[in-house]
Amino acid sequence: MRMTRRVVWGLAAAAMFGTVAGGALAQETVTIGWTGPLSGGAALYGKNTLSGLELAAKEINEAGGLEVGGKKYKLEVVGLDDKYSPSEAAVNAKRLRSQYKAPIVFCPHSGGNFAMQAFNEQDGFIIGAYTSVPQMTERGNKLTLRIPPSFAGYLDPFIKAEMSAFGKKLGMAGADHDYAKAWAALIAPAWKAAGGTVVAENPMSYNKDTDFYSGVSRVLAASPDVMFIGGASEPTALVAKQARELGFQGGFIVMDQAKLDEMAAVLGGDWSLLEGAIGTLPLIFDQRPGAKSFVPKYRKAYNRDPGTEASLNYSSLNAVADAMKLAGTVSDAPAIFAKLSDAFGKLPPERNPASINSVDAKGGSNAVLVVGLVKGGKVVPVDASGTVQN
Amino acid sequence: MNLSLFVQQILNGLTLGSVYALVALGLTLVYGILHIPNFSHGALFMAGAYTAFFFIGSLGANYWVALIGAAAVTAAIAVLSERLVFSRLRDSPPLHDMIAAIGLLLFIEAVAHAIWGADFRRMAPPFPGIMRIAGTVLPIQRALIIGGAIGLMIALHLFLKRTTTGATIVAMAQNREGASLVGIDLTRVSIITFAISGALAAVAAVLFAPINLISPSMGNLVILKAFVIIILGGMGSVPGAILGGMIIGFAESFGAFYISTDLKDIIAFALLVAILSLRPQGLFPAPSR
């Protein structure tokens, strides 16, 4: 009996020594999984979200790696193309978990995230859901981190700022995909509750239409003061431009999928066409210290301007790395998940350009929302109450 | 009814109809040679837009030079596809042509994807001005689309009806054996027809690009409409392609304005079903072969 125990201890010691020796010889790697579009129309969007993760991993590795429980780990981001398809996202996630042992899989589309929610608790990995659909965290999944804030938070500042600046009549000319419909279903009642009227509802197919002139003129025929627009940035810019050509002088409420700076780029940098438009604040105009230090770093690494999809994912991977330290494990997903809120709260601003301060009980981040209004050809920040800050 | 808004929809319908008709014209001419719809035609439309984008953006060419350059390059691509692919399949079953056409479509799209990436590109409008006539808005670029398309249609009509080369194309479309018997060279006619179809697609794309976006998949939206148009107008018919293009353009613009933008495609396709159930052979059926 005594003999047996001694042998067991000896084996345990040998095993421990073995791992330590192994760690000294070659640094161990923790794989951070990512599945998203790398080909097709949404490829650029996919690459932007992936770049935020890669930049964060690169910085952590250059600073000497991640030290968890006395061991050093290197972070490696493995990105697999799912062509924006939920089923391929699920297959990729299975592969990332079983082949690479990834404790977390990031995905930038709601369909893929919903698909992964079917098995992530069982397989033991966290979903890093880059989507602002509020339902993402309403299904009771215990290992889902919703990275962007829910878009419901935009309604108040958007409506207050536009209604006071332009008037009470809203014309709806948003896109007709699911995400845009979810937005429309929230903003129309909120606008009415704020004392306004909705004078026209005419969703258009931003991805499939060849021209928006007729659709826009149908909305303008009801003489709205403010137009609700938004799909991908590029067609949204065309909708805004055509509305101006057809004589519209009012403001635009721009759905968060479209980014004001990308729209201006499509219009040849002509911000005057977007005067009075309110939307998410482009990161390059964000005056908070975290964002200000992130923009030059990103430009240096990728030679282009970062958007919020890069900064939000960058903040998140930094928090995940710190949560691993706090939890003392790189593989136990529930333990890491439990420390995420703490980790976000303790991140210094330069590692948290998205200003996420905590994660709620359901897994939703509560980044501090800042929106941007185009005023005098410049984007000025507007706070959550709809007050323009200067 | 507000008259200026009504006139506005007529102008919108003319703009859209002109672009559709130009694309459908190339498609219908090539149908006369191949006897299958050339699926790769949408890729030629896209290639024309990117070529002009390259001429303007990278070589600093002026818009008109880019337009002519794009027409020439795209015509060359079309001729190459005829020489390297379709002419070799002349004696194969039509299914082989069809598969080859789809292959070409995917190939040209993948090349554009590899060179320019997936992001949307934009060509700055060469004439950003806007004409306003009694409450109706007509940007100069849109006027250019309408004028350019009508000019090209007249030129094409004169070419087919008044020149010997044009007559050989018509003859070949009507009866391949008959035309060969009277000494018309099939190879020469094929090359000319493909060149014209490529050039028409490129001109349509370059006229349309400044009011739209350039992306590798831009041709798919237009080519789908063009198929509908040549079925509506009668496969292989030139006046059918023009009238069909205008019908779809007007149905879209009036449907989007007076009924619902969401339903405009339903309206356009319902019209197609209605017309075809009354005239199954299309509006201008090709003379019997």
TrEMBL record, chain A:
The keyword Ribonucleoprotein does not apply. Gene3D superfamilies: 3.40.50.2300. Residues 1-26 form the signal peptide. Keywords: Amino-acid transport, Signal, Transport. Residues 29-341 form the Leucine-binding protein domain. It comes from the Bacteria. InterPro entries: BCAA_transport, Leu-bd, Peripla_BP_I. Belongs to the leucine-binding protein family. This is ABC transporter substrate-binding protein.
